[in-house]
Amino acid sequence: MPHRVLTAEFIHESNTFKKGVTDLHAFEIDVLLEGEVALKTLCNSNTGISGFADVAEEAGWDMRHVISAYAEPGSKVSRQAFDHVAGKICAAALAQKDNLDGILLALHGAMVTEFCEDGEGELLRRLRDVVGPDIPVAMTLDLHANVTPQMAELADIIVSYKTYPHIDLRERGVQAGQLLEAAMAGETRPKTLRAHRPMLDDPNGGRTDTGPLVPLYADALAHESEPGIHAVSLNAGFSDADIFHMGPTVLVTYDTGTDGAEGRAREIAERLADGIWHARDSLANDFLSVDDACRHALSYRSDKGPLVIADYADNPGSGAYGDATNLLAAMLKAGLENATFAPMIDPEAAAALCSGQVGDEVRLALGGKNDPDFGGGPIEVTGEIRHISDGRLTGDGPMLGGLPFSFGPTAVLRVRGIDILVVTERGQMLDLQQFKAFGIEPERKSTVALKSMQHFRAAFEPIAGEVIVCDSGALSTPQMSKRPYVNVRRPIWPLDADVQP
Ligand SMILES: [Zn+2]
């Protein structure tokens, strides 16, 4: 008899400092697909569901995929959106509960809703109410998960991504699926424990390419081959979600049926949590001011490829507005030539530009409309429309390869020497097609300024001569004290002095 497995994806990283709510429409714009349609659209790419489907095929599961729901990181999830997606998952579980062997979920682990701090924990609680405590539940989480005690308690198996940029979603999906298969077959009885220290964030945001945590990720992987240790996950946390249990965590999924595994799991988790704590003062990123970044661009020689400037603080991928203007204003002031800047998320400006024609000269107020205190207010620019598009593209890089993506109505406005990508829908830059689809060849530019913290590196480091990172003062600024934390447990590093682990 094949194992019958219910699968679903419900992914949101909620920035509680951002105004408004993430409603169902925001999911519809990105991904809100059910059953077979979801599988057809999202499989064979860098997605968790691809990994689940790989295991289903190999192990001969009867896999029942309910829904894939993803919205670009943003404000808290509305009750209606949460109830809609969680409702579909729970209704399917209820309808099939007498014939179900396991549940496999792809979640983020930093979802905050307008009615509760722990979206994933709430989903798991509702699911357990339906299916009871015994059926094995496995899930994948983002490396930037905030993991609450409730989540670790209610899920048996948790596997987080181990790469940032996140290029191992499918691989982790396979790992979670295989662990679930072993549990359903009665070979293991998994459980997950959690360790943490009083930290708001890993100051390197979970960088796995460089910095002090690189050896810890290697350790985590090595421990997974020990007897009875199934998965060791280092979660950097998400410091834009102001909830009680925010911050880095270590999770170890172990087999309760293996002698000594629980003690060993606790030892591993605490030692790795100590490692994160001790690395708290070593920064891998050198955050330049926007003026210093532009000064560097002026003297940069682009023979080896463009200078890439990452606007870390205005990363739409962490829920920042994506319309901060400080970096663009500095680029214009510096008079940079053969440069590009992307994206400027400004639906009003995008609509105005898309109602014109290529070649038109226009004057408009660009960006800075959401919260000028974070990253600068609107700037008046005059430029030429170079391209108009519906914003759709298919990615071809390590993260977005084969996946559909849309910025919505999009235009390229050339202001002096800078091609500005003005878009309607939110999205961070993580694929070359996000330029090329709109007629911008990033390889040929001298300066490529883009809004992203780290994900851009997967596609842009190979073409860059040099990468620098700046802090434009936007909502996701690395200067934590600029954000008004209220809910996080105190005392906590780095907000409070003399915090003890
Ligand atoms: Zn992440």
Description of the molecule:
Helix content is about 30%, strand content about 25%. The protein has about 500 residues and is of the alpha/beta class. A 9-stranded mixed β-sheet has the order 10-20-11-19-12-18-17-14-13. The protein has a 6-stranded mixed β-sheet with strand order 2-3-1-4-5-6, sandwiched between helices. Strand 4, helix 5 and strand 5 form a beta-alpha-beta unit. Helix 3 (about 50-60) crosses helix 7, helix 4 runs parallel beside helix 5 (about 120-130) and helix 10 packs parallel to helix 11 (about 325-335). The chain starts with a strand and ends in a 31-residue tail after the last strand. Zinc ion binds near residues 142, 143 and 144. It comes from Sedimentitalea xiamensis. Involved in peptidolytic degradation of cyclic heptapeptide hepatotoxin microcystin (MC). InterPro entries: MlrC, MlrC_C, MlrC_N. Its cofactor is Zn(2+). Keywords: Hydrolase, Metal-binding, Metalloprotease, Protease.
